Amino acid sequence: MKKNKLHTAITHTLTTLSLLSLPCIGIAQETPETAEETAESTNLERIAVVGARGAPRSVTSSPVPVDVLTAEDMQSVGFTDMNNVLMTLVPSYSLARQPISDGGTFVRPATLRGLPTDKTLVLVNSKRRHRAALVQIGGSGTQGPDIATIPTAAIDSVEVLRDGAAAQYGSDAIAGVINFQLKNNSEGGSITADYGTFYEGDGDQLTVTANKGFALGTDGFLSVSAEYADSEATFRGEQYCESWFCVDEQSEEFIAAAETMANEIHGSDQVQPWGQPNSSGTRVFVNSGYTLNAEAELYAFANYSESEGDGSFFYRYPGNGTIEDIRLEDGSIYNPISAFPGGFTPRFFGDVTDYSFVGGIKGIVGDFGYDISGRYGSNEISYTLKNTINPSMGNLSPTEFNPGDLTNEEAQFQADFTYDLSSYVLAFGVSYLDESYEIKEGELDSYFAGPYATSDPWMFCNDDFTATDAGLGVIANGSSLNCANYTSADSDGDGIEDDGFAGVDAVYTVVGVGSNGFPGYSPEFSDTYSRDSYAIYGDVSGDITDNIFAQGAIRYEDYSDFGSELVYKIAGIYQITDEVAVRSSFGTGFRAPTPGQQGTTNVSTRLPNGFPVATGLFPAGGDVAQALGANELESEKSTNFTLGLTANYGDMTLTIDYYNIKLEDRVNAVSTRDVSTTEVTDPNAAGYSAYQNYLALSGAGVVGAESIGGVFFFQNAFDTVTEGVDVVATYNVETSFGATTLTASVNYNTNEFDSDPSEFFNAEDQFDFENGTPDVRGVLSAIHRYEDWMLVARLNYFSGYENANNSSLATIQSFSSEFLFDMEGSYNISENLTLSVGVRNLFDNYPDRGTMGETCCGRIYRSDSIVDWQGGYYYTRLAARF
Q1: How far is it, in rounded angstroms, from Cα 542 to Cα 28?
Q2: Long-range pairs for 243-249 at CB < 8 Å and ≥24 separation?
Q3: Is residue 622 part of a domain?
Q4: Helix (H/G/I), strand (E/B), else coil: 75
Q5: Number of domains forming the structure of the chain
Q6: Can you say whether the dihedral through the CA atoms of 329, 331, 332, 337 is positive or negative?
Q7: Which pLDDT score, from 0 to 100, does residue 73 have?
Q8: Does residue 825 form part of some domain?
Q9: CA–CA gap between residue 105 and residue 563 (Å, rounded)
Q10: What is residue 34's predicted lDDT score, i.e. its pLDDT?
Q11: DSSP character string of 506-559
Q12: Which residue from 23, 70, 2 is spatially nearest to 285, judged by alpha carbons?
């Protein structure tokens, strides 16, 4: 593929003048047609732009650990979603499937080195990528870029910097940096069609990708990439059957109605489906550059993406607080079971629109390099909820709602410069960033508090449990109203039953407010949260001696909502011999909580104690969370240290890197706090805190507070230490039977508390935080090429982990280690056409079945497990080049 003239010139000049981070720098190569050419290409050093603000460096000569993944690496993976590609090739990058997690169903959160996505900075062509509109409602409240919007067809290479780099690249770069380099071909192209299905016969997936390069005159290029992907749902659960309600134990009529509902809504007899959701999307990326003269080039790249998905919430069964008897205005009894004779499962739909544009000019004037750019990015999620009700509206409730939209927007202007000082390179720059997060109000019915949000809405009964005139009127008309139902109750929480009346007639029933499953955004919680910031940085790097390369960086950033911060970093590598080197880095970093984390609100069904309850998330700086004891969010601060060894012996390369990341004031959701309307006045009695939480909600004016069973919010909850080791080894073997590349990548990672988290985390959450994910992840792969054939074999390893059932820690489940084996074979039918057939998880392995409350409600496997629980998958792929 041809490169434009200035790009070639600049790439060459970079090796001598050390110009920084140019968007078009890449390591794209023609696909080798023979085993000999392949062997030669695999022996080439992989070059990375990230890690040093001066000249690009090879992986083994970089002062910090960097993985460089080529387009060929990505093509050897049996995935098309960029998140899954990274997880397969980078062991310290982890990903979980969350089928019931509101917007998390559609935008999947990931981790790098055990830290959430928002601790990793994502770049495209060395420019910051805008965030998704989704704020994950649990854990750290992650709000990071949606990497799934980046089609593999558009990518020439990916650089994964596994080290803190906030001093070089800014806020978020605590765990590392991922830099996607776009293709820059001016001619030629490719088209690939990939189709597969799971062993279970479901989850069919079709992906079609294409790339085409165009020349812009004689001095420019335009590379256009597109992707269409469609993925059907999988079902890996069983019928809903718990101690509180079991579908199979109901009447034949009920079972038939429940299964009919399930089939019509999500295509399975199981009323509570577990698996991957339906999803589809169309994505386009454009990359371009144009030479103005021998010293300057214009560049621009942009993307547009539309995707949609749908998934289910928890099943609503009769008597679960939603399907309850209520008394209508005419005194008759109404129950939603009349509209949903088999209960109902709310169905959640999300439409995601993502687009961005980056443009700038770069060039070289003597020893001076410059890159001046501007960018704009937007991500919007529009929600729809079907097959549900607003319980508080009773028989007048619709069954479909638009609960509102979320939009994240960013605009940034940036100027980066370098100056060659012979033995050293000075890099410096400034930037200005404006960002906003908007919560758009939903339709009225999605948050409306209907009459049945309060007890006795039609005032049929007096305070002394006698009927009012209105009550006597409906009784006269045949109503079964009984205000004076008697029961003994411990109303004051002292453990002694009180004589008196406590209403148990349907007239007293209080039900939830808003579209059940995901109440809409009301005016009180709909707003735009915005801020701006500016930064200035300096970076110097170079060879101190023939054997020592070092760099130092310092950055000052000022945020309109979090004040200013000064961070720094030093790093170096010492070449002991021509083959062996040691490297180390030390730096500080910070991350300012996003406007989305500061403003998001949500009421959804969660399982704080294994039992589904309506749970509210409220902004830490708002009146509601403040009434519950929350404090305004503050920035997170980090200290990073790495120590590594690199070796390069002919056909073998080896890197071993130890890392230690201390994170202070880490933002995380607090453990869910119970809410109860049962009056308890004794501070030492059970239920007192839950009642106080209800009073706080009610006092803060939360509509429907009576129907909320739990509350939580984000806080700077604790300090942590993340520690681990990355080992990456490659070995190339050439024989008369072809060329083989062997790769072993292993990550060992632990997370521990460095402060007392008990104020914010209960014992269960503390245990799961430190023990709930595998400590060791490994990927072993072999790629063998012989003439027109290629065979890929890959082994994924996950070590064991543990999970607690509740805060007593009396029951802890240990999950065993898992091995997942992938294979793929490819044959070059012609010079430009390749057919591949492969299988993921060849032996159809699944993680251990869950045995505790969190795997209730038809769920067999922990849905947040990073060990895949979909089973084996086979596929075929046809790729054409032209």
Answers
A1: 26
A2: 244/320, 244/611, 245/317, 245/318, 245/319, 245/320, 247/271, 247/317
A3: yes
A4: helix
A5: 1
A6: positive
A7: 86
A8: no
A9: 34
A10: 41
A11: GGG-----SSTTSPPPPGGG--EEEEEEEEEEEEEEEESSSSEEEEEEEEEEEE
A12: 23
H or E stretch covering 494: none
- Closest by CA to 354, choosing from 422, 411, 408, 412, is 408
Q: How far apart, in whole angstroms, are the C-alpha atoms of residue 181 and residue 159?
A: 8
| Residue numbers of the domain that contains 684 | 594-632+671-712
Residues 360 and 373 sit within 8 Å (Cβ to Cβ): yes
Closest CA to 589 of 563, 539, 553: 553
The angle subtended at Cα 440 by Cα 353 and Cα 436, nearest 5°, is 70
CA distance 44 to 50: 18
Which residues face 297 on adjacent strands? Answer: 291, 362
Positive or negative: CA dihedral 264, 266, 267, 269: negative
Structure tokens at 282: 């169309």
- HSE of 813, CA atoms in CB hemisphere, 13 A: 17
Q: Can you tell me the distance from the alpha carbon of 154 to that of 222, in angstroms, rounded to the nearest whole number?
A: 12
Nearest-5° Cα angle at 590, 584 to 593 = 145
Q: Could you tell me which residues are beta bridge partners of residue 134? A: none
- What CA–CA distance (Å, rounded) separates 389 from 78? 41
Nearest one of 286, 191, 270, 211 to 236, comparing CA atoms: 270
Say whether 771 sits in a helix, a strand or coil: helix
Q: Which pair of structure tokens corresponds to residue 416?
A: 């980066």
Report if residue 678 sits inside a domain.
Answer: yes
pLDDT of residue 332: 96
Q: What's residue 80's pLDDT? A: 79
In this structure, are residues 700 and 173 in contact, taking their beta carbons and an 8 Å threshold?
Answer: no
DSSP assignment letter at 44: S
pLDDT by 10-residue block (mean), the chain, 882 residues: 39 33 33 41 58 61 87 83 86 74 68 87 95 86 88 92 90 91 95 96 96 95 97 94 93 96 94 92 96 94 95 90 94 96 94 96 94 97 95 96 96 95 91 96 94 94 93 95 69 49 79 90 90 96 92 96 93 94 95 91 67 79 87 94 93 94 94 87 88 87 79 93 94 91 94 94 92 94 94 95 90 95 96 95 95 86 88 96 93
Q: How many residues does the chain have?
A: 882
Residues forming a β-bridge with 311:
348
CA-based nearest residue to 657, from 10, 73, 60, 203:
60
The half-sphere exposure of 386 on its side-chain side, counting CA atoms within 13 A, is 11
Query: CA 446 to CA 397: how far, in whole Å?
Result: 10
Q: Does residue 647 contact residue 723 with C-beta atoms inside 8 Å?
A: no
Residue 818 forms part of a structural domain: no
